[in-house]
Amino acid sequence: MLDPSPQMCLQTSFMSVLARLPQLVAGLLSTVVWAAGINASEFTGAKLDSILENALRSSPAESFKLCAYTLRTIGLQSEMEERYDPYFSDTHTWSLVSVDGNIPTAEQLDQYLPKRHQRHPAFVSFEFIDVESIELVEQTSEGFLRFSFEWTTQSDEISHDSVSNTLLVDPARSRILEIRRESVEEFRVGTFLKVLEFETFDGFRFDQQTQSVVLQESRVHLVARSGRQRMDQSVKREFSELDCSTVPIEVPEDGNQEPILRLHLPNVPEWDNRRTDGLPP
User: Fold this and answer.
1) How many helices (H) and strands (E) does the chain have?
2) Phi, psi of 167, deg, nearest 5
3) Measured on CA atoms in the order 120, 145, 20, 228, is the torsion positive or negative?
4) Between these two residues, 76 and 255, which has the higher pLDDT value?
5) CA 160 to CA 133: how far, in whole Å?
6) Is residue 251 scored above 60 in pLDDT?
7) What is the mean pLDDT of residues 127-148?
8) How many CB atoms lie within 10 A of CB 38?
9) Helical spans, DSSP H, in 33-161
10) How far apart are the C-alpha atoms of 112 and 73, rounded to whole Å?
11) Closest Cα to residue 144, out of 111, 114, 178?
12) With contact defined as beta carbons under 8 Å apart, do 130 and 56 qualify?
């Protein structure tokens, strides 16, 4: 069972270092093989450029940040589930759903601190990828294409020589399935922190509401040493129950259809025992 302040169990002294590392945007591995049996030699020149151009195209609307969703955070020794619903006032936007699979105690609810800067799964951008640096590495047995790439802006903490960046693309649908970053050798962050192992992974799924890929899974693994202290941290975040029905969204569609206006109805799960004060009329 977590302490009354459950999110503290998921933080370590080096999380401030992680906050400075570039964030990845990635994709969920498809459960259906759409490109099986396709020869990698077919993906050359203009055809390959077209696939990449469509896969990397992203123009998330600010209104997507108003979509509600559930966040499940899994640490080495603890697990926490939270619900984000911007329909409610600022003090009720985040709510604690469960701790280690159990209904939170009154003390845990009282000590719960809502998140302040959490990436939104529906707000996705690939602008950090240097398009000119993308190179085809291989075609997987499932028919997907794996590419290497570099970041558009060099991070002060991470050398490109120390970390490999790859993305996995479904060529049949021109969608990014996976972006992975992992260390190929030990490297230093600043003067006193030596990173022994480092890996990040983000996963996407296609969402009908936004008509685009949304973040479904994010993982960070870090083993580092500072002096005599060794730090081992693995955090996995799962994003689910995305609900954009509470906000008006313009969905890109073919033709001259009018923008779709979603009904403004709050999504209140049965487990949500929020107070009613401060809620919008």
Assistant:
1) 3, 11
2) -135, 145
3) positive
4) 76
5) 12
6) no
7) 92
8) 15
9) 45-56, 106-111
10) 14
11) 178
12) no
- Give the span between the Cα atoms of 156 and 108, in whole angstroms: 38
Torsion angle of C-alpha atoms 18, 20, 21, 22, degrees rounded to 10: 130
Residue type, 21: L
pLDDT tens digits for range 90-123: 778 899 999 999 999 999 999 998 877 888 999 9
Q: Which residues fall within 8 angstroms of residue 150, CB to CB, at 6 or more apart?
A: 130, 133, 160, 165
Residues in the chain, how many?
281
More confident: 39 or 37: 39
Question: Rounded to 5, what percent of the chain is helix, strand, coil?
Answer: 15, 35, 50
Over 50: is that where the pLDDT of 2 sits? Answer: no
Report the C-alpha gap between 143 and 170 in whole angstroms.
8
Is it the case that residue 204 has pLDDT exceeding 80? Answer: yes
Question: 237-274 as b/e, with b when 16 or more CB fall inside 10 Å?
Answer: bbbeebbbebbebeeeeeeeeeeeebeeeebeeeeeee
Q: Is the dihedral of CA 208, 22, 12, 89 positive or negative?
A: negative
Return the CA Rg of the chain.
21
- Element at 18 (helix H, strand E): helix 15-18
Identify residue 199 by its one-letter amino acid code: E
- Reduce the DSSP state of residue 225 to 3 states and report it: strand
Is residue 248 within 8 A of residue 235, CB to CB? The reply is no
Query: Which residue type, as a one-letter code, is found at position 260?
Result: I
User: Largest Cα–Cα distance in the chain?
Assistant: 64
